[in-house]
Amino acid sequence: MLTPPTVAVIGGGQLARMMQESAVALGINLRALVEASDGSTGQVTVDKAVGEPADLDAVRALIDGADVLTFEHEHIPAPTMEEAARLVSVQPPASALLYAQDKLAMRERLTDMGIPCPAWARVEDEAQLAEFGATIGWPLIVKTPRGGYDGHGVAVAHSPADVASWWGNGPLLAEALVPFTGEVAALLARTPSGEIASWPVASTVQVDGVCAEVTVPAVGIRPETAAEARRIGERIADELGVTGVLAVEMFVVGEGADERVLVNELAMRPHNTGHWTIDGAITSQFEQHLRAVLDLPLGSTQLRAPGTHVVMVNLLGSSHTQPARALAAAFAAGGTDAKIHLYGKEVRPGRKLGHVTVVDADPTRALDRARAAVTALKGEAPAD
Q: What sign does the dihedral 235-238-241-245 (CA atoms) show?
């Protein structure tokens, strides 16, 4: 008897948890290497093992008999990628994932491609940082090339002294502080065979470096700007050989006919800016990622309800020790057709605990309703 396809995934957070939901529907076996058996993914995945990406024995066991290996985060050591590639199809491959792992490599490659990015420099020491700041003006954005996420490893520097403790582990990435008018995300998927499917471009709101709100289709930008963001995302996926889901986060700068986008970050996996697709698109990013890494035909990326807007608001922290106990209040506040997703995580201040999605013809009303549901889940009093 043939066994179902097995997708091995490294990581046990909410992204692999939501991959599991799509895997169940497709009859795919998802096998996860998780950080904790009772973590977000461990709670819902039967085929799992506890281990770290750097543990080659654990990774070998994970991919034994699997059809493909994929990831829910980019923090995968090079030796793990090399060993896995000897034994199984790895999607995305190391040659592509590099550009989501290393911000300096990403900036260099995109600049070589002519993709618009903020002004940037590789800085090896305080003197080079000071020189770059003197050239383009302070303050700057300074980033560690590897390991950062959700605002970690990113600082607004008004002088070299603001990142004095960061030296000693290699060069840093310095960038201009972009006077953006908004932020957008292009979300797409690509198969190893080269098929690409893009969802509508989303407008996003970040709070303290963390995605807080997403609206689709994007609001507040020209249609031509959204089309350009989509073209940039598809070109990056094609030329870098990305497989699976790719999210390209961009700044919107300029006004009127001068409005344009600058690429900020890349993520080669399902992404927070795509959670709306679960309830708002015909094919969710999680189903699409599984289909893409298995080189299956990609699904439709159209909205389930054409002519509407889809809004997603993140639940970041809560005064409730168990937010699910506040579901009744959340539905009362946001409407019974609000879609609530909780990740089974231990509550900590500012932690991503879940999200709420609302579909409505009026994006402002959708946002108000999603915010109201999240406020209830946080245990806060409704805004006046």
A: positive
Overall pTM surpassing 0.90 (yes/no): yes
Residue whose tokens read 């819902």 = 44
The CA-based angle 285-25-244, given to 5 degrees, is 30
**Per-residue pLDDT tens for 302-341?**
999 999 999 999 999 999 999 999 999 999 999 999 999 9
Count of CA atoms in the C-beta half-sphere (13 A) of 51: 19
Mark out the alpha helices in the chain (DSSP H runs): 14-26, 56-63, 78-87, 94-101, 103-113, 126-136, 223-240, 277-280, 285-293, 327-334, 363-378
Only one residue has tokens 């008897």, namely 1
Q: Residue 224 to residues 30, 173, 240, 362: CA-CA distances in angstroms?
A: 39, 30, 24, 22
- Distance separating alpha carbons of residues 300 and 279, to the nearest angstrom: 13
Asked whether the beta carbons of 363 and 219 are under 8 A apart, the reply is: yes
> What's the distance, CA 297 to chain centroid?
22
Do 301 and 199 form a contact (C-beta atoms < 8 A)?
yes
CA distance 279 to 301: 12
Q: Are 330 and 377 in contact (CB under 8 A)?
A: yes
User: What's the CA angle centered on 87, arms 235 and 40, to 5 degrees?
Assistant: 70
